[in-house]
Design brief:
The chain is an alpha+beta fold. It has helices at about 5-20, 35-40, 60-75, and strands spanning about 25-30, 50-55, 85-90. It is globular.
Amino acid sequence: MPSGIGRLISDIQSFVSRHDQDYSGWDIGVTTDPLTRLLEKHQIDVNVDLWLCGETFSDKEANFVLRRFVEELGMQGHYDDSAKGRFVYAYRMSDRTRP
């Protein structure tokens, strides 16, 4: 179920701060299919790696969240305001994962 951008930003910040204060060790992205993106592109292990996903109400909102974490907090990620997808995902990078 979608949530507002303020709530999603807060959820991501809380999750990262519980596990690791270093935002540069995390990758964030926008997609239409978060599980496929996380499993196939980034090679995360859902049972081992730290990750989360949230849904916004629009592509524009998802891109706003992505840009905020990359520009203001130093998370890894590539943004393009034309990226499609309402899902924002983040995961802690490790030797197993691929950005």
